[in-house]
Amino acid sequence: MKQLEVHIMQQSYMLGCPEGQETRLLAAVKHVDEAMSGIRDAGKIRGRERIAVLAALNVAFDLLDLQVQNSQLSQTADALQAQAAAQSAAMAEAQTQPAATAQASLDWDEPRLQSVLQRLDAALAPAPSPGAQTLAASA
Q: Does the keyword Coiled coil apply (predicted)?
């Protein structure tokens, strides 16, 4: 394990870091330093411990928001894959039927396809982000 000296809010810390992970650790240190310095520079909170707690809460809030967004994207991707599979199956079936039967089948499925497309549009619509606001603390 490698030891790195880092600075957060002008205070030095010696941190252990797994080999090859130095860049990730330095990026994390920079993120924490910026979060804490931003809270300090806002002028409402002075105590280093309170600043650290608020910065940790803000980072955790952002992380949870990203997890929710990732889950929503995953669900949308699953719905799109299911739709693509259904369309592929319908096209394969249409190719094996005589033209008149295939046309009748497609006409019959149009309302169902419209319903699926409307649901996909609704699923793909951007949801308002509850994490857009940063946590605020009283002095």
A: yes
